[in-house]
Amino acid sequence: MDEGWWYAEGEDRQGPLSVAQIHERIRTGAIGAQTLVWRPGRLAWKPLHQVEELVLPGMRMEPVLLPEFESAALRETPPLPEPSASDPTPTPQFARADAEPEPWLSDGPVEAPAPRMRAPGLPPAGPWRRFFARIFDVWTLCVPAGFFLGAVVGRIWPAFGLWMENPSSTPALGLIIVPVALFFEAIVFGLFGTTLGKLLFGIRVTLHDGGRPTFVQYLGRVAWVYLSGLGLGIPFVTLITMGRQFFEVKEGRPASYDQKRYLVHATGTGVLRTGIATTALVGLVAGVVFIHHRETERSIRYYAGFAWTNPVTKLRADIPRGWQYREQSNTSGDVVHTFVSDSVVAVFAVESGLDHVSLDEYQRVWVHAVRAAMELDSRARPISVKGRFGLQMKGAMTSDASRHVDATLLKSGGQVWRMVVVGTSDRDPDTAATAALRDQLFQTVPTAAPEATPKGETI
Fold first, then answer.
1. In a 3-state reduction of DSSP, which class is residue 229?
2. Helix (H, G, I), strand (E, B), or coil: what is residue 322?
3. Residue 361's domain spans which residues?
């Protein structure tokens, strides 16, 4: 049976080695006073400086400060008695009931137990590094979180999607997006064992025994991060909670959401990684500033109203407050102009080449063409739009009868202009606000010029 010494290097164990070989590695700098060592017959790993026979003359003897859990692991069980020749299989008197049997009690090959403490060379991560990694993760993952809320939740719950479009929803929306982003962070960590922010800034999160947290474990951690670290994302409260955690880490203590369960290490960072991380952080900050600027402009337009120019007729409309605009394309590839409020969506479009088609004929054909999406009255009622004749129809969306539809048609020469307003949550979209918008939009439709009278004829 080999009675040589073993030492831990990161997560690897090297040995067995003789005392002379250990001394040689000390002289070459491969190991030092804080390296963890063990040999058969010893229950636990110890720092080299605590083993008298391994210490070289003149070697620094200062004890290495270890975290509380490491000290407890070193002293939690007294050493087992050495075996004697008369009793080849002694029974340990001080071993815990749940302790693993020592290698020297078996006839098999000697194998060093895994050290139960932090691997040498991985110091705790500092507060600034953790702060930048956290900010990077939250900001980047807010993008897919927002997309998920708009594309998935907004499609299932249209009223929520329209509410998201409203600039007044921004503060409350932030409180919703942050926990969704943290949930996405747990998914990323569960898949890859790290996140982009932690990878860039050299952060490694492990359990106290050195193992990798599972998805469920890390999800529990980010839940506590959201509560005690980010303060539920509430402004000013976040500053207080993050400041408290910052100074805890700065003083060498674990953050409240890491105590007794998680360790946050600082891995090595070179010039290349530092440059990439700095560039990525600067780019992210620039992107956030740009988005904030766009949101500010959008809020101003929403609350004050804005001028809109019809790209076909080049005529201008003063859009009332409470509306947002975006240009889109329908399933046929035609350009449609969409105006969104907190409860309805208005779509303004034109169809050309209808010189020899009356408005009544167009209305019947159009109602038949859109019946897969909307169920509209087959008979329209006349409506006056700024003194001009138009046709109005009411109905509902085919897929959801609670979403009422109001459609208005207006003919000008060979063009038919239409405005379709869709409500949400069983609301009637024909309101004073939509009527004011309709008047402004149809005001950009020119009055058809009278046909020229041939020379020599009178009317």
1. helix
2. coil
3. 321-442
